[in-house]
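Q: Please design a sequence for this.
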């Protein structure tokens, strides 16, 4: 850039040879004009989306319609379910809002920053404080905070895949546009901001970009499927029941004339309301929210609530070495001279003090202090080539992995042979190796043909104290591990052995086959991979997912971002690049790898408890649907009032579900949540339906009064409901026993307190009714036990099949 060029029109002024950026007065002027990067974009669900998800649902609409009908016909006593639905919506909204506030506070505290030039010096500011015409300073690992035009570029390469879907890095030259949300993967440069806030490309596509944040959730998709089925059934079943009730009241004409249609409508509403599994959706949302808040207390930021479930389903986890197995604090070990060449200490000193220096280069600063001269040119580090270079008066100096700078495997040059042998020996001790080479400068960013190795450098990494214990946990839980790193494969393998992995050697990713089948075989048969490029990391994750594996990927560098985005569950360290954290499902705020077992445990608790709770709710939906259909076909009066069902549902399902959903549960995840739930719920629903239908038919034949039939039906349902609760709570711990006992006491009070008896229209059963109640209850309990026995066998078979599939993969 010419020194006399005036770019004040775009906010860059060149004085001498330094870019000054905006002045304080110019910044204040733009802030006053509202030309800032401030943009309100929730880090979690918005308040409106939470309220909408808990209130404005199809089922709430059905409940509201039934509620209004009952009020209109003067049967407000039977509208209790309406208040229950309101309470569910309020509780769900409050719980999710509390989770949102906790997560938003964490996200705010850990928000990324931007670097800008102001008043001639570099400053780090929040993204919101970037203003129009600011000069951004961009380096590898940065996420571009606002749209702009490149003012200067030194090998600047940007990954725009999160915006465009194109995975190849794009070279950016002076005058090219950079878009907010893209990631700098190599080189450095500056850019002048020309679009901020809502006008920027990323924010204008925010809704579209959010498609990347939808983590796969078996719980969510399974429950959505059930709700869809129920939606299709509600209308036809309601008409079937209404017809039966009108005919039971003497026919449509007589019931309409006598006012008995009100009883028919009340019975129909009772049948419809019982079919709707309102509490299941509520329980799932609350369990996710509570799990996220519990993890937040352990410094784990959950970017999306269903991600709490995700890690419980993971059966293979891919780890980057640096920042996960090791602490990332590289320490310089030693220099091993190979070829006499003066000035190499000065070059290493220059590498150690650069602003874009990585941890390895920075570790050189304390050991090499000789001031270098001004470079004539440089080639920035690239994740693809894994080396960088700088040109001084005496030639070009290249710093990178020995096998990347000198890729020839069978060279006859004794110096290169010595380099290869010595590097391999040092790598097996767990040391990281780099070579500093010298040659004649080239014009095409390639290693000079006359390059010679000058000195071999070794570095040490501190292994995380919690790494071995964490990997041991995954091994015990049958979660496979793959270490994929950009470092020397033998170095990575040595570190893997130190943390307890069975890794006799590392596989060099440059030898990975092109064919998909052969590629997958190599991934399955090796544990450690070195010299892996960002695209290869992504390909490994994609290949494992295509093979049916549920993949987690952890990392902290920008080279991990593509793989983390592709993984089923991406986990980033808070010390990592902003781009990596932006695409991760979970962020470990204190960088402790040891939190992952807690995340897995929390996810397993969510899945196991929701599965147990879902069996309660789905059993109710099943028997309510079968009862409605059966009584509609048999043309029998529906044996419940809505108020009676509301009380029994609350005490046998709704209230205990709150407690069961939040209990500790370390049960391992087995695929097939919905199938297992329905395997119990449908047969159990059939058993309840057979019992109640038989009771109602026999009671009608004995000409027992309708009020007494309803009392008996409610007693039978309460007894069976309590027994189902006991069956699904096994093993019954002291706490579960207290919950079950409290529900039984509640039911006894409902039947014995006069005010409650009168409100619920209960009567004392006569001897025939009592005998029918006892006989029906005993028969149904026996059937429920048989159903549970068979269900456990099916669950065991599923577990064995899942294990067999895992082994075959």
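A: Design:
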């Amino acid at each position: 850039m010419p020194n006399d060029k005036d770019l004040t029109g775009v906010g860059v002024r060149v004085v001498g040879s330094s870019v000054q950026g905006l002045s304080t007065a110019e910044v204040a002027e733009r802030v006053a004009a509202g030309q800032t990067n401030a943009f309100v974009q929730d880090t979690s669900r918005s308040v409106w989306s939470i309220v909408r998800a808990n209130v404005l649902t199809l089922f709430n609409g059905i409940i509201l319609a039934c509620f209004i009908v009952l009020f209109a016909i003067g049967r407000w006593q039977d509208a209790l379910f309406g208040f229950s639905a309101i309470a569910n919506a309020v509780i769900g909204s409050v719980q999710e809002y509390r989770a949102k506030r906790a997560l938003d506070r964490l996200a705010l505290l850990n928000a990324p920053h931007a670097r800008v030039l102001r008043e001639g010096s570099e400053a780090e500011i929040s993204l919101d404080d970037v203003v129009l015409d600011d000069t951004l300073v961009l380096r590898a690992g940065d996420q571009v905070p606002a749209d702009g035009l490149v003012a200067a570029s030194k090998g600047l390469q940007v990954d725009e895949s999160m915006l465009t879907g194109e995975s190849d890095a794009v070279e950016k030259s002076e005058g090219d546009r950079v878009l907010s949300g893209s990631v700098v993967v190599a080189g450095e440069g500056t850019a002048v901001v020309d679009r901020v806030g809502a006008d920027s490309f990323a924010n204008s596509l925010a809704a579209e970009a959010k498609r990347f944040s939808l983590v796969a959730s078996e719980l969510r998709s399974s429950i959505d499927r059930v709700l869809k089925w129920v939606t299709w059934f509600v209308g036809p079943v309601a008409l079937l029941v209404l017809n039966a009730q009108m005919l039971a009241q003497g026919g449509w004409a007589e019931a309409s004339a006598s006012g008995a249609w009100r009883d028919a409508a009340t019975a129909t509403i009772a049948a419809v309301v019982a079919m709707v599994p309102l509490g299941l959706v509520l329980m799932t949302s609350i369990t996710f929210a509570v799990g996220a808040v519990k993890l937040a207390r352990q410094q784990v930021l959950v970017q999306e609530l269903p991600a709490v479930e995700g890690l419980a389903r993971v059966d293979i986890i891919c780890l980057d070495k640096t920042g996960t197995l090791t602490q990332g604090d590289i320490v310089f070990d030693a220099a091993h001279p190979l070829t006499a060449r003066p000035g190499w200490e000065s070059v290493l000193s220059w590498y150690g003090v650069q602003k874009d220096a990585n941890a390895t280069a920075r570790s050189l600063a304390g050991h090499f202090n000789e001031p270098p001269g001004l470079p004539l040119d440089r080639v920035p580090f690239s994740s693809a080539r894994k080396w960088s270079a700088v040109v001084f008066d005496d030639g070009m100096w290249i710093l990178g992995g020995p096998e990347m700078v000198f890729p020839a495997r069978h060279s006859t040059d004794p110096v290169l042979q010595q380099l290869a042998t010595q590097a391999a020996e040092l790598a097996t001790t767990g040391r990281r190796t780099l070579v500093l080479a010298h040659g004649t400068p080239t014009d095409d960013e390639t290693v000079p043909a006359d390059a010679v190795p000058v000195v071999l450098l070794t570095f040490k990494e501190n292994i995380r104290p919690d790494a071995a214990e964490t990997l041991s946990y995954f091994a015990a839980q049958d979660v496979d591990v793959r270490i994929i790193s950009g470092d020397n494969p033998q170095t990575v393998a040595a570190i893997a052995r130190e943390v307890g992995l069975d890794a006799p050697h590392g596989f060099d990713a440059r030898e990975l086959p092109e064919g998909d089948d052969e590629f997958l075989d190599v991934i399955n048969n090796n544990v450690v991979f070195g010299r892996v490029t960002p695209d290869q990391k992504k390909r490994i994750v994609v290949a494992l997912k295509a093979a049916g594996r549920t993949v987690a990927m952890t990392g902290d560098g920008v080279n991990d971002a593509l793989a983390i985005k592709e993984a089923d569950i991406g986990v980033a360290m808070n010390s990592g690049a902003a781009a990596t954290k932006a695409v991760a499902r979970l962020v470990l705020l204190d960088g402790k790898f040891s939190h992952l077992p807690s995340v897995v445990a929390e996810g397993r608790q969510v899945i196991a408890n929701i599965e147990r709770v879902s069996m309660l709710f789905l059993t109710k939906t099943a028997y309510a649907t079968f009862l409605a259909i059966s009584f509609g076909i048999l043309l029998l009066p529906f044996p419940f009032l809505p108020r009676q069902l509301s009380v029994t549902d609350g005490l046998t399902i709704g209230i205990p579900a709150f407690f069961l959903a939040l209990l500790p549960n370390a049960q391992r995840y087995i695929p097939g949540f919905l199938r297992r739930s329905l395997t119990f719920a449908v047969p159990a629903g059939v058993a309840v339906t057979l019992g109640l239908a038989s009771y109602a038919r026999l009671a009608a034949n004995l000409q027992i009064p309708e009020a007494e039939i309803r009392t008996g039906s409610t007693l039978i349902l309460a007894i069976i409901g309590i027994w189902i609760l006991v069956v699904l709570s096994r093993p019954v711990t002291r706490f579960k026993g207290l919950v079950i006992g409290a529900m039984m006491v509640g039911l006894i009070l409902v039947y014995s307190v006069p005010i409650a008896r009168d409100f619920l229209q209960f009567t004392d059963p006569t001897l025939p009714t009592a005998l029918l109640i006892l006989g029906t209850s005993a028969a149904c309990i026996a059937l429920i036990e048989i159903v549970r026995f068979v269900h456990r066998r099916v669950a065991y078979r599923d577990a064995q099949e899942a294990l067999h599939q895992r082994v075959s993969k």
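Q: Thanks. Anything notable?
A: The chain has four domains: 13-33+111-211, 219-277+603-808, 300-325+464-591, 327-463. The first strand starts at residue 6 and ends at 7.
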